[in-house]
Write a structure and sequence with these properties.
The protein has helices spanning 2-16, 18-21, 26-36, 57-71, 78-86, 90-94, 106-115. By secondary structure, it is an all-alpha fold. Helix 1 packs antiparallel against helix 5 (78-86) and helix 4 (57-71) packs across helix 5 (78-86).
Length: 119
């Protein structure tokens, strides 16, 4: 998984410098971290089979952000919570844009995560 390849230190750096990085081209910043973490090109593709509009980076980020805060609203633990969630089963469900999980109410997504299954 990409989150493990990036590692906690790179993710901490992204979080710490988010105010700077958000002003830069997201693909450029991504490429820099991909190179730094030696992440190889893979076959992960959630877009080509998508029948519907794909959310922007920012839109999907908001879904993850809300879930992270709902799971653990302690800012000192955001990075650990982010790694936990992005390594979990629910990401495959949220990232399937042919399903409705991405569009669901944040409380529903949270309850699914807590229960460990789609309700």
């Amino acid at each position: 998984m990409v989150v493990q390849k990036l590692g906690k230190e790179n993710i901490k750096k992204m979080y710490k410098l988010a105010e700077v990085y958000h002003c830069e081209n997201i693909e450029k910043v991504s490429d820099e971290f991909i190179g730094k973490a030696n992440i190889e090109m893979g076959t992960y593709d959630i877009v080509s089979d998508c029948k519907y509009k794909v959310p922007t980076y920012w839109d999907i980020g908001k879904v993850y952000k809300r879930l992270i805060i709902m799971v653990n609203n302690n800012e000192d633990q955001y990075i650990d919570t982010l790694i936990e969630i992005l390594s979990s089963w629910i990401i495959e469900k949220i990232d399937n844009y042919n399903s409705s999980m991405y569009y669901e109410n944040p409380d529903y997504i949270y309850q699914c995560y807590i229960e460990g299954k789609v309700l």
